User: Fold this.
Amino acid sequence: MRAVLTQAPVAALSPAPLPVRRQWLVFKQEPALAVRVALGVLGWALFLCAWQLLAAGLAASPLFPTPLAVLEALRTLFAERAFAADVFASLQRILVSFALAAAIALPLGVFTGAFPALGAVFSPMVAAFRYLPAPAFIPLLLMWLGTGDEQKIALLVLGVVWFLVTLVCDVVRQTPTDFIETARTLGASRRTVLWTVVVPASLPGIVDACRQMLAVSWTYLVIAEIVAATDGIGAMMMRARRFVHVDEIMAGILVIGLLGLACDLLFRGLHWLAFPYLRRR
Assistant:
């Protein structure tokens, strides 16, 4: 009874627990899908508002059109100037060049990452070519391949292939050694270990590497199409530059961004469908 009497005042005087304060910026915590969508819409709304205010502050200068002027130029390009053919030509060059780059980089990256002896042979050469700017090859490509699509596709391949080899090689090297040793202990051959352990374990990272380098390929598109090009988004932008049609140039930039975003979403969807065991992670 005495213990109860002596503890009662202590419990009565103990402070009430403080309410938990909600934090918006938390390390390594993904917001809900609805929150992410809302924040993305908010970011674009802020960007467009800032663009509109900045363009209006320049007294409607023709060198800095408003977002509505760019949208009107985009409508005019598609409706009156057959801009869809230019978009299709650029998209075809991107897809063909990236398919060729992937056909070269994926096998080379997998083998150099899986076998250090091959990496010792090819890695110094790949590292050297990775630091060479792709536009520096334009004079050589013009002399070797002419002014057709072959020259543009080759430039796009050179812009991404060396980086893709390095990324794939790094992904393959991250394959857990325990997986390989377990397969070898069970009697698997070198070819079996490569195709049933190393490649499946590296495939999600390889898809991510391809997604990243496809974005880089889009950044080289205008450079590839400004030299002796008659069609394509870059060619349209160069024609617009001659007549100081800044709204059309911005419309071309907008189309490149939207196409790049669509390709990125396709790769994300492929990753989501192909690797369901990674969704929860």
In short: The radius of gyration is 27 Å. The CA atoms of residues 108 and 165 lie 6 Å apart. The chain has a mean pLDDT of 88.
